[in-house]
Amino acid sequence: QEERSRSEHNLVNIQKTHERMQTENKISPYYRTKLRGLYTTAKADAEAECNILRKALDKIAEIKSLLEERRIAAKIAGIYSEAEPPRKTMRRGVLMTLLQQSAMTLPLWIGKPGEKPPPLCGAVPAAGDYVARPGDKVAARVKALEGDEQWILAEVVSYSHAANK
Predict the structure, then answer these.
(1) Which has the higher per-residue pLDDT, 155 or 42?
(2) Which of 139, 135, 164, 165 has the alpha carbon at shortest distance from 151?
(3) Coiled coil where (predicted)?
(4) pLDDT at 134 over 90
């Protein structure tokens, strides 16, 4: 927030300079050089703010991964028990709420200009030899008892190299 407040002054100056140029109906060399300097400063401010936001997102991702590691370790140790069996049926609204909550906690990738997105980000497929790690959240296509296939949201428990699943 401090970084944003600091750069706000420069953005206001850019706007005022544009308004002055409009009243004079011409672009003088003075305004051209002044705007060039203001835009250079604004770009540097934006990059600094972007770097701070990236560091904050990295810290959030680190905290989430630590919490997930603790949850998995507790589950393995038997401290965290899921005594109740999973419910057979859930209403659509409950499922949508769960999906919305999961979507809000997904890691966020924000690339720099020109940077390519990593695998499994958006529509970028994973490499052919990619294996999901235990604890990863996935959308999986499974066969139901009746034989038809359905999409589910799931957490990876293990990977079978023999079955490639």
Answers:
(1) 42
(2) 139
(3) none
(4) no
Q: Which two tokens stand for residue 148?
A: 């038809």
The residue whose two tokens read 């419910």 is 87
What lies within 8 Å, CB to CB, of 154 at 6+ separation is 137, 138, 139, 140
Asked if pLDDT for residue 1 goes beyond 70, the answer is yes
Average pLDDT, the chain: 81
* pTM exceeds cut of 0.85: no
Cα 155 off chain centre by: 18
For residues 125 and 113, the answer to whether their CB atoms sit within 8 Å is no
CB 89 within 8 A of CB 33: no
Q: How far apart are CA 101 and CA 93, in angstroms?
A: 12
How is the chain split into domains, by residue range?
1-86
pLDDT at residue 80 is higher than 70 = no
Positions of E strands within the chain: 137-143, 149-155
The whole-angstrom separation of Cα 96 and Cα 36 is: 49
In 3D space, the residue among 108, 103, 135 whose CA is nearest the CA of residue 121 turns out to be 108
The answer to whether residues 138 and 156 touch, using CB atoms and an 8 Å cutoff, is yes
With tokens 């709420």, the residue in question is 97
Residues above pLDDT 70, as percent of the chain: 93
